Amino acid sequence: MVALMEEASCSALKYFLTPAETTVGTGIATSHLAATALGASVTATATLTKAQGKSLSFEVEATDSTGLTIGKGTHTRAVVDSSRFMGKLAKRSST
Prior knowledge:
By secondary structure, this protein is α+β, with helices and mostly antiparallel strands.
């Protein structure tokens, strides 16, 4: 559920970032409100609620195929330079 919420947040931004930018998750707070039957589909939505500089805040919600809200919460992401971020990760993994 959390991964779907993060993915929904990323998808909401894809037309607003330059090719050199990406976002990274910086926080998530969720409540799991109901179970979903095995085999049922789950859909997550994200609504941008605040954009301040490079920091972005979202309200996130997950619903199952019956329309029942199974989870909701807030999620924050930060806009970063893709190549710089990946370079830092590469340095860390080589040590």
